[in-house]
Amino acid sequence: MFGVALTFGVILAIATRTLRVYEDPRIDDVEGMLPGTNCGACGQPGCRAFAEAVVSGSQKPSGCTVSSPDGLALIAEYLGVEAGTQNKRVARLHCAGGTSSVRRLARYDGLPSCRAAFLVNGGGRACSWGCLGLADCERACTFDAIAMNAEALPVVNVEGCTACGDCVEVCPLDLFTIEPLANKVLVQCNSPVTGPEATRACAVACDACGRCALDAPTGALVMKGGLPVIQDAGRCDVTCTLRCPTGAIAEVVGNQFQPRRRLEVAS
Amino acid sequence: MTGVAFMLGGRTFRHGVHPAEHKEATRSRPIERMPFVDEYWLPLAQHIGAPSKASVSPGQKVQRGEVIAEAGGFVSTFLHAPVTGTVKAIELRPHPSGKQLQTIVIATDAFASQKITTLERPAQDADAATKAAFIQRGGLVGMGGAAFPTHVKLQVPKGKTVSFVVLNGCECEPYLTCDHRVMVEQAEQVMRGLDLILELTLAKRGAVGVELNKPDAIEALRQAIGTRPVEVVGLTVKYPQGAEKMLIDALSSREVPSGGLPLDLEIVVQNVGTAAVLAGLFDHGIPLIERAVTVTGPGIRRPANVMVPIGTPVRQVIEHCGGLLPSAGLVVLGGPMMGMAQKSLDVPVTKGTSGILVLDQSTKTVSEEPCIRCGRCLEACPMFLNPSRLAQLARAELHDELAALHVMDCFECASCSFSCPSHIPLVQLIRVGKALVRQKGSSQ
Hints:
The complex is a heterodimer. Chain A is 29% helix and 11% strand. Chain A is α+β, with helices and mostly antiparallel strands. Chain A folds into two domains: 2-79, Orthogonal Bundle (3-methyladenine DNA Glycosylase II, Chain A, domain 3); 89-251, Alpha-Beta Plaits. A two-stranded antiparallel sheet of chain A has the order 1-4. By secondary structure, chain B is of the alpha/beta class. Chain B starts with a helix and ends with a helix.
């Protein structure tokens, strides 16, 4: 018996030396410095894989959207690389149709979930493209960065949002997109209906009047399928939102659904 | 009480439920015609498959029966003007699905004769493909509710054979009686349609399955058989007897494989209403421009079976039936078990609309209680699934487990929700689960 144990012991002792796979010890250290949420926003399947990518140099530390700038600087200093610039991106909702804006045709009594209501005649609202307000995104958010407001609209807290995309995936109406925080102008309507039909369903719907496209720099914003489409976000600013009759296109600084900046009329 | 003896004698499937029938209000009312209304709304998507492509433009005059939209693919079908008039617009309009979809709006010409422009019929000895194309040109879809294009089912793929054709006259949904009336009033056409299906599929035998609560329909069909190799089978009154797979089980004691089609058992199933329209198409060249609809429920003033032109706004059909009672509550298109609750009356009757059911406000909204593990949903499920477990998995969003427990075999008959003493919205949860599996796919 002892002989068998000794034989295998020797084999194992040799094997650990000869078959050893070298792994950079820095991977473990970097992984320890990452937040460990495994959210996937960096494009890697988890924090470990991201640590490997950072150590190998194929990604910059700034690829992690969850870490604070200090945390990223720490990793960069440890590895002796550049932290990279973090282009902060956040989830934005393309609908502003809260309970007081959108007309309700029927009461929905079923399961309190957007995905369930979507299957029952698309919920009870007159607009069939807008937010259902049943908070599937709030529940899906790993970082508690989404909170429903009094209008039953999800407000994404830009501080907490890491652009992981869970809300994008869960919304049955595909109302979320991940946008650079620096983009100042946002189309907050998803309804292709035009004219008075649109505003009859929802007070803040885009009725495709086209004023924003006229006010924006040439080619920066065009009307397509009954909605404005931002082609060049860098060139759009508050000017193209000022004449919007409904507020469907809005200037966003920080969180969405803040009071709107109005056109100042000289007296 | 011959009815009782009948009910005991019928063939059936295992499991299922017995909801109250509520068919008294309309079952003996002959199908009446509805006067033309001012406007018809024809969504381009009224069937399963690719939406049709509009072939008319606003301002154009159209004749009743004329093609206004062409098939958008093989699994798609044609659409015809239900009325002589002018195309007013092609725009987004509310659809019974709750969405707003591209719809051809036709304004009726009040002075037109409303004579139907018939289609040119193929020769008697034309080949199967020509006839299938003709069925597609006639705009035929399954009239039972799912609205699957008929020509796809009747074109037997290479290497497959059909030996048995089943006509579905079960109408197991409570309240609905339009198929019942079609069988009583158009028994000859139904049999003629069955002839055509037998001819197209080269099947040897046929059967019509009818629930035993419609003895007059069974009698009328038996009278119309003549020398055909066809049998009219009375089936036990049980829900969902009219589901394709349950009907096959009752008639042949065979089971359609999971994920498979009746074709795997050399069987083709069609609704009796579809057969009647098929007869009109081949004998007179009349496309699908109208259908029988049961307008019923405790919230409607004058329940009736009405022949409604496709595209008629539901509001007008309800007005034709005396309007809503003050007690009216939920409005459902289809039956109470599988129908779709509507948020607005401004939606059109489509090719798949079998009923307009108006419930009253006494319909209780129940609150959900915890599962007490009584197992009634398991005994109800005709597909032998475990609805309670599937609902839990759907809540937890575990799509792999859902797929492993065959959630996709569920055809949403709602027997589980009906039988649940804790009022758990089982079928709604399972529908969410199915959507989840479709979205994420299964890793198996």
